[in-house]
Amino acid sequence: MPFLRIALLTLLAMTAFAGNSLLARIALTQTTIDAVSFTSIRLISGALVLWAITMFLHRDHTGKGNWVSAIALFAYAACFSFAYFSLTAATGALLLFGAVQATMIGYGFWTGERLIKQQLAGLVLAVGGLVVLMLPGLSAPPLFGSLLMLAAGMAWGVYSVRGKGAGDPTLVTAGNFLRASVFAVLLAIAFYARSSLDYAGIGYAIASGAITSGLGYALWYSVLPMLRATNAATVQLSVPVITALGGIVLLNEAMTLRFVLASLAILGGIALVILSKDRQLR
User: Fold this and answer.
1) Is the pLDDT of residue 218 over 90?
2) Dihedral of the CA atoms 137, 140, 144, 145 (nearest 10)?
């Protein structure tokens, strides 16, 4: 596949991931849909689109997902939705992707990987950036929403670790989305009396599930084999930046100095860990 096409598909996939944050923020603050309904509709529509893609476009039908991974996926989706009641799109994406990468790096360390000096420096820089972002002040994000988004990132990190070598990634993701939808429906039934829906909110939830999740993941998995693992991990750090730009243009979100400095520290620190690991493996 030509380099330009790979770069374009990668950019589209990262834009889709950023779109998840933007759609959730718009739906949960500018429509009347509740977080439980948004989560349920997102997972169900994502499952339908992913399953259709695997049935019509994929030849490799190995792997079907599992219930443990589905729980992690559901935890991510639910915490993600509730967090965006209070977080800006940019802050939520920064916390989410920082927590995902930190969880996966931590798993590697737990399974026997050892960090060299540059990686330790990167971790210290990333943690320092998180501390700067979370310190009390006028521009600090709400603590509860931040903790929910960190939990969402950890859940997605667990999901990602469990998905390695599980078979065709799109098919596995479709199976896990379908299973996670069961938990989402049960939660929706439990909170039925508090549910709130409108056409706009439903539309945003479907778009988040079918387009920026379902099609976005399928697009990402199609280009992933053409990327080195380090490049794939590093390029995902662009998502908070794309989200921040989208938040400014579409949501009139302000860009604070605290957020800029924290972003540079968190994303720069994680990039240092990833790139140092790549050099270590050569």
Assistant:
1) no
2) 160
